[in-house]
Amino acid sequence: MRNCPHGGIMPEWKIHNKWAEKLGIPKEISNFVNRLIDFPKESQEFMEFCDREDEKPRTGRRKRVVTLPYRTTVGKHDTGRRRKTAAYLQLRFLRQKGSEYVEAWYLHHILDYIESAPILILKRIENKTEYCKIKYLQKSCSE
C-alpha cells in the first residue's frame, strides 16, 4: 500500500498490475495507465494531447465561462477521480490508444476506491456520531 497525497491509502501498482493481468491487460498498459493517473504531468504524450484539446473551440451550455488551460486542471494525482474534466480528458486520450487502456483506467480507480472505502466509511460514521460523542463527553464530565 502507498499513501495518497490527498489522504488515505491506495494499493501499490503491483496490486493494480496483478488484477490487470487477471483481466488480460498487459503489464506495460497497466503501468502506462497507473503513471498517467498518479502522475499525469509526467506523461508528455498526455500533456501534448491536452494542449491540442485546448486549441479546439469549447462549446457548452454556459454562455460566459472562464476556461483554464486543460494542462492546469489535470496535472495532479488522481484528478480523474475528483474532476470530471480530468476524467473526460484521460478517457478521451486513452480511447485513442485502445480499449485495454480504458479498462485499466477504470480498474485503477475501482481498486483505489475499494482500498479507501473502509477509511471513507469510518470517516462518515465518525462525522455522523460526532454530536453524540460531544454530548456523551459533556454528560460524563459533569457527573
Brief rundown of the structure:
Helices cover 70% and strands 3% of the residues.
Q: Which features would summarize this protein structure in a list?
A:
mainly alpha, two-stranded antiparallel sheet, 7 helices, 70% helix, 3% strand, flat
What do you see in this structure?
There is one protein chain. The radius of gyration is 20 Å and the shape is flat. Mean pLDDT is 76; it is low at 1-9. Helix 1 packs across helix 2 and helix 1 (13-22) packs across helix 7. The chain starts with a strand and ends with a helix. The chain has helices at residues 13-22, 27-38, 44-55, 70-73, 79-82, 84-97, 99-142; strands spanning 2-3, 9-10. It has one domain (2-118). A two-stranded antiparallel sheet has the order 1-2. The protein has 143 residues and is mostly helical. The chain is 70% helix and 3% strand. It is built from seven helices and two strands; from the N terminus they run ββααααααα. The longest helix is centred in the C-terminal third of the chain and has 44 residues, at 99-142.
